Amino acid sequence: MASRGRVLHLSENLTLPFDRRVWMELNALKAAGWQVTAICPVGEPHTARSEVLDGIHILRYPAPPPASGIVSYVWEFLYCWLWTLLLTLKVAFGRGFDVIHAANPPDTFWAIALLFKPFGVRYVFDHHDLCPELYVARFGDRRAGSVPHRLLQALEWAQFRTADLVISTNSSYREVAIARGGRRPERVFVVRSGPSRHRFATVRAEDPALRRGKRFLVAYLGVMAPQDGVDHLIRAAHHLVRDRGRDDLGFTLIGAGDSFEDLRALTRELGLEDVIHFTGRVPDADVEAVLATADVCVSPDPLNPLNDVSTMNKILEYMACGRAIVCYDLREHRASAGDGALYAKPNDTSDLAARIAELLDDPERRAAMGARNRARFLESMSWEHSASELLRAYEVLWNPAA
Predict the structure, then answer these.
(1) What total of structural domains would you count in the chain?
(2) Are 19 and 382 within 8 A, CB to CB?
(3) Structure-derived torsion over alpha carbons of residues 37, 40, 41, 44, reported in degrees to the nearest 10
(4) pLDDT, tens digit (0-9, with 9 covering 90-100), for 300-325
(5) How many CB atoms lie within 10 A of CB 347?
(6) Full residue range of the structural domain in which residue 22 is found
(7) The domain spanning residue 282 has which CATH number?
(8) Distance between CA atoms of residues 239 and 231, nearest Å
(9) How far, in Å, CA of 255 to CA of 311, rounded?
(10) Which of 22, 26, 182, 240 minimizes the number of CB atoms within 10 Å of its CB?
(11) Mean per-residue pLDDT for 226-244?
(12) 234 and 139, same structural domain?
């Protein structure tokens, strides 16, 4: 197949192919005839500085040390930006590119795109996070309006204004691109995140050993950072086990992140080491086995300006596995899960615990919700339904008069 054009993808959040959304996007473009190159940081177990996977050329740079404060985050972004610029120049004088497709956070790759736009290179902004809201969610409401917050707003504005086309992960983000970013509606496309139906063609059989001797299993899957609310789930577990005296359930928390050690410390502080099991990051097969065994899956993301309008990939994976879900009542939670979830009062850990108990004690309702979630995933929420919109966006980018 003759190449449609050459795409260079820039991201720094995760390594590839570990960043599942980005990897599915790149494979969709490759399958449609685009020549694809990607730049990202090194990450375990993907440590090769240069390799070709599935026909996609990947260049990786050494990952920066973990960041914990504002100064270290600034240094991390600068470090990653300089490495990305260096490797972009390497690609420019090698394979070349016609399109730069960049995912945030952070909102800094527009400055690289500006260097190449005079040479006819087009810029696609793939909007993964609301960085101003993410900053406030991580560091507290008192930071709203601070100098770093205003700087992030300015960087976001530059990102939108530089882009020839914007890809939004949901309709809420599309509204931001149009209202706050000043983008024309016809240049903003919704490409939702969601696992591939090929990966979840069938749902695994449950593994009773994963219950660790308990009658019920409650599961969490995802990143463990301050804005993800895993501490809310741990406190809900304390309500159920210590306050309500339930000794028939265990919790398995899958994932890692900046808050991982703090969450384990909270678990010890609350005396829940025998109830809550942390797996860290594990292979897909292990993730799917836990989710297939879980009686209830929880998405404890608290209400804040970021989470309320963000699509949570974990909810879609829960749906793919046909699980009943408990989460806080957030706008995009309802847009994703609909009536396949039970919604707790936002940020109320006792109500989160009550909703978990309600579902655990109603097996017929759990089964019905799980079946609805599985059907909804297959019918409208899998990646295959989004891939066609990505390719349509690229048709508009490449042939704007079409």
Answers:
(1) 2
(2) no
(3) -70
(4) 999 999 999 999 999 999 999 999 99
(5) 15
(6) 6-194+382-398
(7) 3.40.50.2000
(8) 12
(9) 18
(10) 182
(11) 96
(12) no
Rounded-to-10 torsion of CA 147, 148, 150, 154: 130
User: Is 227 found in the same domain as 190?
Assistant: no
Instruction: For residues 310 and 315, give the distance between their C-alpha atoms in angstroms, rounded to a whole number.
Output: 11
- Which pLDDT does position 324 carry in this prediction? 97
Is the pLDDT at 55 greater than 80, yes or no?
yes
Say how far apart CA 240 and CA 253 lie, in whole Å: 16
Q: Indicate if 373 and 388 belong to the same structural domain.
A: no
Please check whether residues 15 and 117 belong to one and the same domain.
yes
Structure confidence at residue 214 as a pLDDT band (50, 70, 90)? very high
Given pLDDT bands bounded at 50, 70 and 90, which one contains residue 364?
Answer: very high
What tens digit of pLDDT does each residue of 75-127 get?
A: 888 899 999 999 999 999 999 999 999 999 999 999 999 999 999 999 999 99
3-state SS, one letter per residue, for 138-190 = HHCHHHCCCHHHHHHHHHHHHHHHHCCEEEECCHHHHHHHHHCCCCCHHHEEE
CA angle 388, 327, 166 (to 5 degrees): 30
Q: 380 with 364: CB under 8 angstroms? A: no
